[in-house]
Design a protein that fits this description.
Layout (H helix, E strand, L loop, with lengths): L16 H7 L6 E7 L2 E7 L2 H4 L7 H20 L1
Antiparallel strand pairs: 1-2
Length: about 80
């Protein structure tokens, strides 16, 4: 079941405590508002420090993908 918050006169919204706790949203956290067909999604953004090691089990695939992207960018830059 969803949580309800009220928009203030200054267009501010307080994220309910249960949601903040569940998703690790603390003071200074960044969130992204993403528009979708069914409404607006609020996505908590992680810092690079928080992401460190997140893809360790996929290290080889991630490095390969990064290499492919770098090659594509170089080719596009030459065009």
């Amino acid at each position: 079941m969803g949580q309800v918050a009220t928009v203030t006169s200054k267009s501010m919204v307080t994220i309910p405590a249960r949601i903040r706790s569940k998703y690790g949203i603390t003071e200074g956290s960044k969130v992204e508002f993403v528009e979708a067909e069914d409404g607006i999604h609020l996505i908590p953004l992680k810092t690079l420090r928080e992401l460190r090691g997140a893809f360790k089990s996929h290290d080889k695939a991630v490095r390969k993908a990064i290499g492919e992207l770098e090659r594509e960018h170089r080719e596009e830059a030459r065009s």
